[in-house]
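Regression report. Comparing outputs from two consecutive submissions.

Submission 1:
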Amino acid sequence: MTGGAPVSGTRPISLLLYSDDVDTRTKVRTAIGKRLAADLPPVEWTEVATPAAVVSAADAGGFDVLILDGEAVPAGGMGMCRQLKEEIFECPPVLVLTGRPQDAWLATWSRADAAVPHPLDPRALAEAVSVLARRRRG
């Protein structure tokens, strides 16, 4: 796996969203909206629902942030995060959606750069993704 180089300039913030649950994907997209913050470009989404699609999309590169659902089936976002961090050179920052606040330690094990628990707090989610996108953009 090769991953992609950090993205810069005024290109849209490219987010990869992985969840097998369409309702979770809708909640994440709604919480973030069309723009993370006034100083950042608009958001561009790539949604995937299978582990193979996550690996393929992440390997193709070009993402600013990966958002992985820790509760996804058959492969949870935490396991996927650990795999991506080990296999993709310069892996983009990863935010893991955890099942509950007490699962934050699992996100640390997975090498996630941030974690937000369910039920999703739109402000916390948007802020966490903004921080990771700014870090990626430099």
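Submission 2:
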Amino acid sequence: MMTLEAGRSSLLLIDFQEKLMPAIDAAEASVREALRLAQSARLLDVPVLATEQTPDRLGPTIPALSEFAADTLAKSTFDACRGCDIEGALGARQQVVITGWESHVCVLQTAFGLMAAGRRVHVVADAVSSRTPANKAAALARLSAAGAVIVTAEMVIFEWLTDAKNPRFRDVLKLVK
């Protein structure tokens, strides 16, 4: 199934770390979209998981996002599937919605690792970034060619909602407007 379902999805926040932020192109915009997704995930009972790349050097996840993560996994590998128990943390949910930094390194390699493990990966184009726009564009093209679904934050939110009669519709709609 191509449509995302809240009950089958997890949201993954990859390496949104304080010390990386000044170097990331359009960092604030990607954080804003990741935050809308995290807030929607909370309202719709979608688990949120975060990773941190060498947090002893790059610091913690930015506070605006860290409060939404049920678990934060430290890693040194670029592919979180190789560096920590991300599979165990994701559990049975097969759809993984990915946001984060750097698109062409940790986002890309983790997405490939999750796809190799049989997960359905959706990469949120407006909630990922890299140091340069060219690296982000190349990563999204490569991910799409490999079978990841490239989406936007609003696509994800409305697919999770499914129906305007969803009891959380009005609460989530406030995040979109």
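Expected: both submissions complete independently.
Actual: both completed, but the second showed a warning that disappeared on reload.
Relevant detail on submission 2: The chain has nine helices and six strands.
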